[in-house]
Structures are given as structure tokens and as C-alpha cells.
């Protein structure tokens, strides 16, 4: 377990370091006295021009992680890499596939090739995601742990949202997902995040580098992108509330997630960068306390004044690629990484109600 103050490296490269999570990682590293360089292409899906809130004590470079020469220059003097650069979210539709694969998978491959050319065998921390699990972990009263099959369109159209046992058809009980659960990505973004993990694991086996994959659950907080198809649900709900409109909650609102504050996520990255040789492999980065999407909408609505006209509205609509329940087991991160979330749900949502968000360029 990581305890105390451990110096991370002479220079840490944070790819995507101008982004929502990356900028908070930079803040946390600078606060520890570390030297930090960022590399970010300021993608219009997340940024409208130069972002605000970048730490003045970091060295910021604008460039694309898919460009080998740019990455080579950014790696000068670097002894640890925190790889946050990626396209996130479900996007618009399958026309997004080339962009997701290019930014997430090819970008990671270029970064690893550049590291290999430098014989880099230090520490790599990868921003992964809980989406690699697909559906969460489920138990049947008769058949024990079972994998929930993809939900049928006919069931979703009829409002039957809960997965059932593929063997007996009984309702399944969701449980926290541990890191050794089966992975089953069910949308394009999820597939690219799992491929990033596999690429980094291959690099670790070939070079002896230490690789830690942090599987973020539903991250929210200041600097979250807004008003874009790639934004998270918390930011979408807040934008509607600010516009005097009710948040539109899909399905019946009972789908469960783990909402974790971005400052806690940044702290998990610092712990991973400072970790010893045993701090490798995947770790859930979560609060450890699941809430439904409906509960999140209610909490945010209350924090923003609770006007009757903007009360959350459950629509019954569903989205292809969404899953029903996925929330995390927190034990491995606590015991091996030394990480436990500190920002509570009510506190975090109360802050998020007025926190500065980022606008993207028109898409």
C-alpha cells in the first residue's frame, strides 16, 4: 500500500493534461512539488479555444498524441507517464468509430512506440474506465454468479430494463464489480478503452515497465465539459437545469452507477504514479457507494434550487450501448493503492451545482 509522501519522478508527462480529469491530475501533482509537462491537442469536443484553469507551474504543450515527432519531443526528461488523452462518452453514432479508434487506440500505440524507442521502463498510469465491464456483476438465486446477456430491444421498448438470468429467466441481483470480473465492452468507447489496457499490458510484459490501469467510474466535478454529445450525464443534467428545463432521466431512473468526484480521481492518479512495483494492473476508482441516475438527478436538482418546473422527468427512453447496473468494488484500490474516496455524494453534488464547467466548440 502507498502511504506517506513519495516523490514520483523528475518529470511527469500528463497526456490530455488540459482536459477535465487531466487538469486536476496536474493540480494534484504540482501541489506535491512534482515537475509536470502536459500534452493536449485541445480537441473541440472538449474545448472551446484555450481552456481556463490550467496550472501556471506546469509546462503546457499543445500537440497530438498520435503524432510521433510531437510525442518524442514531449518525452524529453520524462520518467513517468500519466496517459489521460482520449475521446470519451458514447458520442453521436457509429460514424464516430474511426475517431475513437484513432485517438484512443492509435494514440496509445504511438505513445508506447515512442516510449519503447527510448527504452522506457518506468511507470505508466492509464486512464481506463468502468465501461470495460459492460454490464455489472449479477447473481441469480439459483445459478449464482452469471453473466447478464445484452438486453433485448423488445424488453427495453416494453419498459423491462432489469437483466434476467440467461439460464432460468429469474431477476438478477446486482453486486459490486471487482477488477477480476469478466470484461465485456458493449459500445465503441468501451472497446477502445479495453484495447488501451491490452496495449499497455503488452508493453509492460515486453519491457518490464510498471503499468497501472485506473478504471474510472462516473467522474464529475469542476471543469467538466458541457453542451456536447460527449459530455457526462451530470453535466447534461446541469445544463438543462440552468436552462430552466427538467433533467430527462432515461429508463426508469433506477440504473445504478458509482459517482466519484474528480479530485478523488486525481488523488488516485498521484497514488498510482507513486506506487511500488506491486501497484500494477487494474484498479476501480470509485466512491464505493452506488447511487441511481434518478437519485443523482434529484440531488442536483435540489442543489440548484429545487424549482417545481425543473423537477427531473423519467422518460422511459433507452439508448443502445447503455447498461443497466455497474458499480464498483473498492477493496483492491483501498488495500493496494491506498485510495479511498473522500468527497461524499451530497457534498460533491452541492459543489457541482455551481462549479465552473467548460464549453466545447460547436460540433
How would you portray this structure in words?
The protein is an alpha/beta fold. The chain has ten helices and 18 strands. It has helices at residues 20-31, 68-74, 97-117, 153-157, 188-207, 233-242, 262-273, 293-303, 331-337, 345-352; strands at 12-15, 36-40, 59-62, 80-83, 123-129, 137-140, 144-146, 173-175, 210-216, 218-220, 225-226, 248-249, 256-257, 259-261, 281-285, 291-292, 313-314, 358-359. Strand 6 and strand 7 form a beta hairpin. Helix 8 (293-303) crosses helix 10 (345-352). It is globular, with a radius of gyration of 20 Å. The chain starts with 11 loop residues before the first strand and ends with a strand.
List keywords for this structure.
disordered N terminus; three-stranded antiparallel β-sheet; 18% strand; globular; single chain; 363 residues; alpha/beta; seven-stranded parallel β-sheet
Alpha-carbon Rg, integer = 20 Å
Rounded average pLDDT: 92
Percent of residues in β-strands: 15-25%
Judged by helices, strands and strand pairing, the structural class is alpha/beta
Largest sheet, order of strands side by side? 3-2-1-4-5-9-15
DSSP, total strands: 18
The SSE order reads EHEEHEHEEEHEHEEEHEEEHEEHEHHE
Largest sheet: 7 strands, parallel
State the share of residues found in helices, binned by percent: 25-40%
Spatial separation of the terminal alpha carbons = 44 Å
Could you say which overall geometry the principal axes of the C-alpha atoms support? globular
